[in-house]
Write a structure and sequence with these properties.
Helices cover 28% and strands 20% of the residues. α10 runs parallel beside α11. The chain is an alpha/beta fold.
Length: 376
């Protein structure tokens, strides 16, 4: 299918939003600061030299952005919104990159080139950061530039064997009939965020209609490499991992028949006034949320229980990529750390595809009610 929809991709990482949008979309500009992610983007998109710009978003000017894109996608750094990042909020170090992006959107608006639609993807903590003040400030900024906005909380577990809840703020200069209504992605957190908005900001809210995707038909075991192709922990390493489990999680390992595959991730827990590291296992067919190597629970382990024996190992980079919905043809960085960094800091590809198919494409294929450059 020939590309007919144009977009800018900010904080592009390895280009997962681009992959999710698909062949109907044409990327006219992409940007990321991180060298490893930039290298991954270039390795996977032969046209990157024409439109990809590596560097700080604050160093960009409106002249760097060609034409007028239908969509601007921004997966801005999430560390300051996540529990692991101290919840510094929009004023926090890395998440302040959002304002570097937003000043470009303001400048495009002043020049009559504002994108018709903006998507801001982040961790769910965006909805509650600083008691909801950050989310209200985001909504106020969008509304001041003529956008209506609404949020959807989508867990990648709907389409992939990974628990990965994320919030997608979708803002549009026009709201065509038929795209609003109920959605399973109007979660309790989304509704609470809306309820806490100041009245003048809430006036710009939209309840976007987005139905649930087809039922997920794959599970964690299906994306794993063959046993003989991976490196397993030694018995001592597996024993240490089991020692980190509390009684509840140890019990989950016992009494399993056949072959059982689980995901193990490490967390810091407060027990009796002291912080201890615990390993937690799940056998629901899902991996826990992937994180970058520098994250607190960064690299997950796989545990296999078979005929009473327990084996464990670390998740591989290719398995992490599959858990993000990346095809095996996707070129990962050569180093394990680099590959896990690109995968763990991305957006789930099938989630983007569903959002594009059901909401973004109908939004942008509706003829604008106003002339180019005019706000609704």
């Amino acid at each position: 299918m020939a590309a007919s929809l144009t977009f800018y991709e900010f904080f592009a990482g390895g280009g997962m939003a681009r992959l999710g949008l698909g062949e109907a979309w044409s990327c006219t500009f992409a940007n990321d600061f991180d060298a490893a992610k930039a290298a991954a983007y270039r390795a996977n998109f032969p046209d990157a030299e024409r439109h990809f710009r590596q560097g700080d978003v604050w160093a960009l000017s409106p002249d760097d952005l060609p034409g007028r894109a239908g969509l601007a996608w921004a997966s801005s750094p999430c560390q300051d919104f996540s529990l692991a990042g101290g919840r510094a909020g929009l004023q926090g170090g890395r998440s302040s990159a959002f304002f570097g992006f937003w000043r470009l959107m303001e400048a495009l608006g002043d020049a009559g080139r504002a994108p018709r639609t903006i998507v801001i993807e982040n961790v769910v903590g965006l909805l509650t950061s600083h008691g909801g003040d950050d989310f209200a400030a985001l909504g106020a900024a969008l509304a001041a530039r003529g956008y209506r906005f609404g949020a959807l909380e989508i867990d990648a577990a709907s389409v992939l064997p990974q628990s990965r809840p994320r919030v997608f703020v979708v803002a549009a200069r026009e709201v065509p009939a038929g795209l609003t209504g109920d959605s399973p992605f109007h979660t309790r957190a989304v509704k609470a965020a809306y309820a806490s908005l100041p009245p003048e900001v809430a006036q710009g809210w939209v309840w976007w209609r987005l139905g649930a995707p087809p039922t997920r038909n794959t599970h964690l075991a299906a994306v794993l490499e063959p046993d003989a192709a991976v490196r397993w922990h030694s018995p001592a390493q597996t024993a240490h991992l089991l020692d980190l489990m509390g009684p509840l999680h140890r019990a989950r390992l016992e009494g399993r028949s056949g072959r059982a595959v689980g995901a193990v991730f490490r967390r810091s827990r407060n027990e009796d006034g002291r912080t201890v590291q615990r390993a937690e296992v799940r056998f629901d067919g899902l991996a826990g949320c992937l994180r970058t190597p520098r994250g607190g629970s960064s690299r997950q382990s796989i545990v296999v229980v078979e005929r009473g024996a327990v084996r464990s190992r670390l998740i591989s980079p290719r398995e992490a990529a599959r858990l993000m919905g990346l095809p095996d043809s996707y070129a990962l960085p050569k180093t394990t750390t680099g590959a896990l960094h690109v995968a763990g800091d991305g957006v789930a590809v099938p989630v983007v595809r569903w959002l594009a198919q059901e909401l973004l494409e109908p939004l942008l294929r509706t003829p604008p009610l106003y002339g180019e450059g005019q706000a609704a």
